[in-house]
Amino acid sequence: MSDALINGLAGAGGGIIAQLLTYPLQTVNTRQQTERGLKNEKRKLGTVDRLFQVVKQEGWTQLYGGLAPSLVGTAASQGVYYYFYQIFRNKAQAAALQQKRNGFGDGSVGMLSSLIVAAFSGCVNVLLTNPIWLVVTRMQTHTKKPLAKGSVNVAHEEEVIAAVEPPPYGTAHVIQEVYGEAGILGFWKGVFPTLVMVSNPAIQFMLYETLLKKLKKRRASSNKVVKDVTALEIFLLGALAKLGATVVTYPLLVVKARLQAKQITGGDKRHQYKGTLDAILKMIRYEGFYGFYKGMSTKIVQSVLAAAVLFMVKEELVKGTRWLLTNNTANNVRMPS
């Protein structure tokens, strides 16, 4: 099994676990990002209040709206990203070693090279998985309207509910809706800000690799017995790296969510967006720069926790897989022919 495939599968596994743990926060954050509040409106509910509001009015299952396609998207995104990241990084490492043989550098992949590798991997990931995340955004922002109590006769309540409640807003429904609105190209709405958003994981991995490299170097230069980097240290490094990347790129994430959420036709034109530039200009004009940072505190908690869990689980899965493969190879060699 190639090193790229091991990292790809481990990344998918880590991404799924992180997604399951933090999905309610992601749902709340997407709703906060897509709120079309104007400058003079009162501040919206905080993270905890919004969580309780969704559970009270729509049921706790609504916090997991779009979970199935989201898990598929997470597995696909992390698998694709880590697979191509390892391939591009191997090429960058080979180029660095070749430069060392030519008398340039120390043979290690530098910060700029790490940034480029992460950016290329992110672009491939975005182009392949954007349709999945558009479906997830639609399902997360879909509001399940509660029926008014006391407005119907109990004897006929079941008949009224069956007549009033819309059919389930599932993956197939969203796909038909998006295709009906804009055809095949509709599934790539928000792809431009998403492509620019590859700077988020690029910055994240650049910071992570740099911090990890410094930690290993410091540990190797100390007089103490050199130990492997622990799972807790990987967790903390992943959290720090994601925190820095999120703060820098959050406005782009808000614009992407606005474009991918369902546009209400016939409503307020101030909240309808024709494209990325139109969304940015309208948000600045009607909501101010605060609009670009709606739900940021929720996103920091969710993304930092998810990234930390992802890095920790992914590294442990890679170590475990390599150990199993090494032991199997060793056992096969010892077996008599």
Notes on the protein architecture:
By secondary structure, this protein is mainly alpha-helical. 71% of the residues lie in helices and 0% in strands. The chain has one domain: Mitochondrial carrier domain (Mitochondrial carrier fold). It has helices spanning 3-33, 47-58, 67-101, 111-141, 157-164, 171-182, 191-196, 199-221, 231-260, 276-287, 296-334. It is globular, with a radius of gyration of 23 Å. The two termini are 23 Å apart. The model is unreliable at 151-165 (pLDDT under 50). InterPro entries: MCP_dom_sf, MCP_transmembrane, SLC25A32-like. It is found in: Membrane. It holds the Pfam family Mito_carr.
- The helix/strand class is mainly alpha
Write the CATH architecture name: Alpha/alpha barrel
Note the run of SSEs as H and E: HHHHHHHHHHH
Please tell me the total number of domains: 1
Q: How many runs of DSSP E, i.e. beta strands?
A: 0
Total number of helices: 11
Mean pLDDT: 79
Shape: globular
What share of residues is helical?
over 70%
CATH class group: Mainly Alpha
